[in-house]
Structure formats: C-alpha cells, structure tokens
C-alpha cells in the first residue's frame, strides 16, 4: 500500500515543476500563467530505500521492486475557489480523492514569474488555500447536517452517530480552524475520516525556494517551518528547479551535483520521509531468489492485514508470519542464517508489524 498525495497551492508557486521533477516526466505543463494544469496529473514514483538493495544482494534476487507513491498534480486554487472561482469546484473534487495534501508555497522572489496575489507571502498563500478548503467543507457539512437532524428526530442511531462527528467538525470550522483539529472520540477516527472533509487531511508544506537557499532555506521558508511546527504538520525545503535538473541526471551525476550544492539528499527523498512521518507509515519487506520487494502499511498494522496488502488470500488464510528484523537479516546474511542464530521469529495474528521487518507469510485457503 502506497499513499496518494495531492499537490496543491496557488498558481505559479512551482507545483507542476515539482511534479515534473518527482515523476521524471513532462506530463504536467509548467507555464507562467494560472490554470496551466486543467486535469489532475497522476504520477507514480518509486520510494527510494537503500535497505531494499542490501536485502536483494543477500537473497540473490533476480529483481527488486520498491513500494510506490502517487502524486496528483492539482491545478492552482485561487481566492473564491469554494464558490467556483477559477476552476474551483473541479479542483476541490480532485482534492477529496487524496490521502494527504502537499501544500507548495512560493518562498522565492522572481520578477519574471507573476504571483496571482501580487505579493510574495507564503503564509498568506497558505491561509488563502486553507480558507477556501474550509469554506467548501463548511458548505458541505451544513447541507449534511440538515438531513441528519431530520433523521435524528426519529432516533435513527446511525444518523445520531454521524451527527455527533459532523458537529465536531462544524465546531472547528466555524471558529476558523480546519477540521483536522477536532478532538475525535477514541475509536471513531475512521468514521471521522469517512466524512471525506478537505481540511481533515494532513498537510505537508513544501517551501519552494531559489537554488541558493536549497540547503538551508531563507527568511520566507523559516516562517513556514515555524507555522508547521506550531500546528503539528510536516514541512520540507525544496528548490523545485534543482529537482527538475536532478531528474535528468544518472545516479553518479546526481550524487556529484548534490554534493556541489551542499545537499545530502534529493528533495524527493526528504519529501517521502516527511510524508511517511505525516501519515504514520512503515515499510516491510519480502525477500527471495525471484524478487525482493518493499511494502508500505500503516504503523500499528497487524500481520494478517499486512499480508493482505500482498494478496487478500494471504490475509484470509493467514497462519503465521516468519519474521526477521532487517538488522538481524543483514547481520546473519539472510533467512537461513537468521534462523540458525535464533533471530527468525514465528509471529501470529496479533503481531504488529515493525518497520524493516523481513517477512514470509504462511497461509492456507
């Protein structure tokens, strides 16, 4: 299981440039005018993980298969989008289909690239977009509330339960806060998520800076980082133009270019790392002569459900999971060595998968 991130922001902040770089394609136009992206572009990228290569070498795998991450390049929002301004309604519908929002903010000055609001202010840009999303959620919930209250008068249990969550969301939105700030009763998180609210989705801010600030950021990105910290969101500093150049280089050239810029890793790596943290995701592996493969699951996933990511039969007929921690697999040079050293464990249905686990599922259907 990967995850699906929608790239959002005002026009001309670098969304499509970032998308092109991340997916190594030119599928999304990157032009200096609003609404250059009319339909959402979707790109799948491999999640880089050095552990995958190390495992494959020991398992002598014919191929390695990384887990994948989907990015959706959604056209620029503008003030009034919640009321249909620009191409607002269409864009808002696209946003509902993603798991998280990658909110690109312009943190660079460039007289040759116009700004739809007329001034460079990433915090104001963030407020503009979030306000439009909140207004859209507010309108959606108020319509739903009317219907639910009618049903609630008949003591409809489902309506009463949903109304409780709707009221929690409305309480935040009416106070000018996104729906993700609501205090959801324990055990009802999935129900709340199923309300499908735009502002319930976690946010990752991308500070798009000029090339000279790619390593340490600038005064504009510093303000965004402070905002993200204050609201418990993630934020990364990326120079989209550098990422676009990196996308055209081979591995050796990329390494040399990054070193010259004083960067340890490419923006894609930092973006994925932050995305994983934001969505509380982990990676487990399967390894053998045919292939070594990475799989992504939510932190806290039990073994049968992790097996189900590979195939539903694995979950349905789950018996046990032969499990080795990544470090033990490497130290003992593979499954047999780990077994001989007593480091291969037989885990049952209640086992919670850990990041880096190398797993072999036993099942019967």
Can you walk me through this structure?
- The structure is a single chain.
- By secondary structure, the protein is α/β, with parallel strands linked by helices.
- The chain is 41% helix and 19% strand.
- The protein has a 6-stranded mixed β-sheet, sandwiched between helices.
- Strand 8 and strand 9 form a beta hairpin.
- Helix 1 (15-23) packs parallel to helix 8.
- Residues 25-38 have low confidence and may be disordered.
Please describe the biggest sheet, giving its number of strands, its sense, and whether it closes into a barrel: 6 strands, mixed
* Gross geometry: flat
Strand order, sheet with most strands? 2-4-1-5-6-7
| Helix and strand pattern | EHEHEEHEHHHEHEHHHEEHHEHHEE
Overall SS class: alpha/beta
Q: What is the number of E strands?
A: 12
Helical fraction equals: 40-55%
Q: Give unreliable regions as ranges.
A: 25-38
Can you count the helices? 14
Strand content: 15-25%
Radius of gyration: 23 Å
Mean pLDDT: 87
Termini, distance in Å?
A: 22 Å
State the main characteristics.
flat, three-stranded mixed sheet, alpha/beta, 365 residues
């Amino acid at each position: 299981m990967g995850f699906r991130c929608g790239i959002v922001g005002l026009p001309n902040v670098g969304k499509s440039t970032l998308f092109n770089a991340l997916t190594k394609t030119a599928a999304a136009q990157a032009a200096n005018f609003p609404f250059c992206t009319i339909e959402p572009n979707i790109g799948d990228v491999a999640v880089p993980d050095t552990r995958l290569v190390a495992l494959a070498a020991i398992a002598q795998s014919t191929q390695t298969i990384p887990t994948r991450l989907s990015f959706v390049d959604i056209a620029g929002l503008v003030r009034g989008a919640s009321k249909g301004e620009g191409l607002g309604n269409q864009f808002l519908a696209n946003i509902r289909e993603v798991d998280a929002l990658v909110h690109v903010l312009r943190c660079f000055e460039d007289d040759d690239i116009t700004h739809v609001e007329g001034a460079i202010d990433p915090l104001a840009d963030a407020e503009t977009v979030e306000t439009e999303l909140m207004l859209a959620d507010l309108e959606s919930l108020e319509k739903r509330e009317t219907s639910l209250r009618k049903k609630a008068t008949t003591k409809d249990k489902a309506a009463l339960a949903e109304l409780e969550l709707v009221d929690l969301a409305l309480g935040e939105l009416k106070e000018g806060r996104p729906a993700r700030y609501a205090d959801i009763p324990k055990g009802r998180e999935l129900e709340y998520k199923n309300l499908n609210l735009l502002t319930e989705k976690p946010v990752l801010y991308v500070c798009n800076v000029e090339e000279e600030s790619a390593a340490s950021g600038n005064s504009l990105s510093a303000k965004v980082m402070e905002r993200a910290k204050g609201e418990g969101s993630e934020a990364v500093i990326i120079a989209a133009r550098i990422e676009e150049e990196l996308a055209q280089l081979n591995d050796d050239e990329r390494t040399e270019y990054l070193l010259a810029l004083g960067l340890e890793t490419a923006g894609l790596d930092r973006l994925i790392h932050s995305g994983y943290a934001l969505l509380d995701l982990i990676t487990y592996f399967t390894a053998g002569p045919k292939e070594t493969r990475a799989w992504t699951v939510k932190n806290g996933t039990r073994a049968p459900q992790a097996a189900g990511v590979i195939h539903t039969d694995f979950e349905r007929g789950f018996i046990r999971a032969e499990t080795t921690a990544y470090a033990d697999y490497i130290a003992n040079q593979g499954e047999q060595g780990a077994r001989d050293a007593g480091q291969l464990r037989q885990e049952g249905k209640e086992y919670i998968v850990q990041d880096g686990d190398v797993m072999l599922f036993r099942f019967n259907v």
